[in-house]
Amino acid sequence: MKSASCPWPTTAATWINWRKLSPSSWTESMLRRIRGTRPLQIGVIALLVTCVAQVFYWVVEEAAHTGEVRDTMAAEYASGLPVAELLLGFGVAPAEVAALMPHLDILGGAPEVAREDLASLTSARVRRLNRYGAEGTFFLVALLASMGIVAQALRQRAELLRRQENFIAAVSHEFKSPLASIKLAAETLLIREPDAYSTRRMADRMVNDVDRLEIMVSNTLDASRITEGRLVLDPAPIELSHAIDAVLGLGACRAHIQGVEVTSSVAPGFFAYCDSRALEIVIRNLVSNAVKSVTQAGGGKVRVHAEREGRGVRIDVIDDGVGFHQREAKKLFEKFYRPGDELRRRTKGSGLGLFIVLRFVEESGGRISANSPGEGGGAVFSVWLPGAEGEAA
Hints:
Layout: E1 2-4, H1 24-36, H2 38-78, H3 81-89, H4 94-100, E2 104-107, E3 110-113, H5 115-191, H6 196-227, E4 236-239, H7 240-250, H8 252-257, E5 260-265, E6 271-274, H9 276-296, E7 300-309, E8 312-319, H10 353-363, E9 367-371, E10 379-386
Parallel strand pairs: 5-7
Antiparallel strand pairs: 1-5, 2-3, 4-6, 7-8, 8-10, 9-10
């Protein structure tokens, strides 16, 4: 097992009082955007209430109208009763009277409105009401479905805005910290002339901070290329042991400063068929994510392990960090997603690292999973990549 170590100890960075980034500006901006949608929300609710009331009004009005039509027709049928009685009184045969007035029945020598015709009027009224009810119900269902789609779109927009605001705040912080450290080291070199050891130590810290800035910029540019569909990979056989050790060596000092021990147990001879830069970014982001999680937990270990699995290789990044709820596993790979609220969050990051990892792994023909027993239980990120035989190019 290999352990990444740092050649110099940490130094105090409290000489400079760098004002913390206030979240008030982006919070107020987000609140203004949310308030801006309130008139639309009120309008949608008012439209829904109006449409429901309109449908009920149509049904009630149609019920009254069809009732009036039925009563009018029944009265018209009954208006022939006096004439039928008069004809029967003059001795006209009942069959002739029934032929002259088809809506009347002559029963026992007394005329009455035919029951079949009255039932037909009632049946026609019921059919019309049922049709109006069905059309009104369909209208309301279609309206509710449309409003549901609009509401879902608004929720997604609000969530995207929240993530974008969080991203801006996170990026500001991620840039501020290394810049403050670089400024501190530069001012120290200007104020006094330290010995060779201190000069080398500060130079190493400045290089480390510049690397951190470079990673942040690289992630931002990679996310942009992925979103715009400009991601181009050049796969080739890559020897995992050498590639993983190279990535871990670059971040060893920063992990050591944060109280995190990073180790690897990757046997030589495991080859993955993928783009070398994509593999570097995947390992770097996964390890960086694990180091941040362990740092928040107060220290611990990050272990990188690889082994053959089927016709490919599986790389596991295991940490003793804060963990997460398993229901958040898929969300972790969404763009800008960071668990919790930016005002109360203590973890660092922009919400782009795991999104980039997922896309690079998928574009390489692999897959990735995230598992955790829960908060405080650490996490395991497993990457499966196609295997390759032979020596690394």
